[in-house]
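To assess whether the prediction recovers the assembly geometry, we first specified each molecular entity separately, as shown.
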Amino acid sequence: MWDPLFFVEVLIGGLLSGIMYSLVALGFVLIFKASGVFNFAQGALVLFAALTFVLMLEVTGDFWNWTAGLSIGFAGLAGLLFLLNRYSLLNDAHRLLNIKVLAFSAAIIVALVLAIFIQGGHNMWRGVFIALLLFLVLTVGIRKPNAAAAVLLGVAIIALFAGEINFWRSLALTLVVMIVLAIAIEAVVLRPLVNQEPIILFMATIGLNFVLEGMAQGVWDADVHGLDIGIEDIPFEVAGVYISQFDIFVAVTAALMVGAIAVFFNKTRIGRALRAVADDHQAAMSVGIPLKNIWAIVWAASGIVALFAGLMWGSKLGVQFSLALLAFKALPVLILGGFTSIPGAIIGGLIVGATEKIFEVFVGIPYLGGGTENWSPYMLALIFLLFRPQGLFGERIIERV
Amino acid sequence: MNDTTSYLSINDIHLQFGGIKAIQGVGFNVRKSEVFSIIGPNGAGKTSMINVISGFYRPTRGQIHFDGVDRTDYRPEQVARLGFARTFQNIALFKGMSTLDNIMTGRLLKMKQNFLSNAFYLGRSKREEMEHREYVEHIIDFLEIQAIRKTPVGRLPYGLQKRVELARALAMEPSVLLLDEPMAGMNLEEKEDMARFILDVNDEWETTMLLIEHDMSVVMDLSDRVMVMDYGEKIAEGAPDEVRVDPEVIRAYLGDT
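The predicted structure of the complete assembly is given in tokenized form:
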């Protein structure tokens, strides 16, 4: 029953589903490149992003009104801070501290009021969540309140005036959430650990993993949500081979994203700074690289990648807790491609996708009773580890994970 | 206060880690374009002092003024932006990068280009890159490390690594150069080379230098002025010849005999 056309079809299907693995692996690579740390929480980031997105799609007009109202309120506060700074009324350190305390208590009060006004268990947490996010934008922006005010007003405008185009509104807001989350992670988790061993940072990401998983499900909920991004999974025929339209869409998206990331990290000075930070924290600081900005940028980038991965996987499997387990599917991809290589993540994904499908169809189902997709990538990775432990494009042997 | 006598002014610095007092009330002024050395036995607090000045440690008490600006609470990257460059006692280079790439990181602060100009005005970015590259090549010539331009620094011998570190610091076009034991672990010939480079840099760019050494003989010929530290305190300051004969200094170095 050997049919070359069928083989090609399985191969193409495998390659295209491999791109889906690459999307998840990409997030790992970004963070590993910048800090030499395997980010255990990447799967949770995917889940968090997808849940945030899908529930922003589902929530009612009230949610948007609250977001808009709060954003305008905080933007006003940020603007006030800007004016105070402008007329140098805040140069005194104590005064600045007072303003921070003031802003903090204001945020708490707003969050509580919000929680009381919007009745119901989950809604309360959502209110607290939004208020905290906005507050975070503000506190980060205390040094640059004008920037914070601009961001908040942007959020308000998105929330209020984007009309019925819910998809784009949710996408834009989820992007803001992921960026704010990255800044928060940097400030709370990473900054205290500057100059520590990578293994310590790795442990911190395990903790972060649980926090994010819990927060995602606490703030939103733990049900399975359908996600329709408007691309239907209809196969079409090219020269006798059926190809899924959805998979093609995923592949194109992934290609665009990889292109953007490649330009960002190879063609900009941030790319050079990134390599420097990955190599030596102290030396990077001594040449004037602000470590915290670099980390925030990288985490934001991998948060955005996680959002796209979450959207693609979510529309395939439904948005649910198992998205967090995708991290484990990305492992063999990383081992194949190398932890530090962006092209490696793509090629690794393609190889994993193609082999698992071909193995399943031509060996698994006829001889082993099927279900080999669950373990064949790991076998492949294991064999790979024996012969090329640094992966196809890896820079060095991974001794840190 | 723009006078040259207090270009970099360190005032009553205290530094404490838990119960350990690393620096206890040390203050001094570095003049513009001079070579100022801090010497002292091991554990005297010299490296702590350089870490305070470069922003890696925040002093428990005291102020640092540079060119009239209070920069006590600046973080390392802000200090770097002010025009401070430093080297490390235990060499902090980007081990995976080539010599050239290491030195190029010193130009990061000087690069104006941003993401958009990179993506869309490739010509301008390329020209800027070329200008930086030119400056770096000048430094490479100056420090005589042409031959190792493409070598990953992890493979270089110790003495050359120290020189690459100096090159990276110079690439930042610093106003103040902080050198933490630039000659530690070197043989005599390498020490003489390094001493020559330090003097040449001072001549050519009039860079203000703050030099740390525990080997007293090395710095005496290089320095305009010397400060001596022991157990976290300043015990002497002055011209090398005065300091050399100071009884306190002799006691610190030779012990009470």
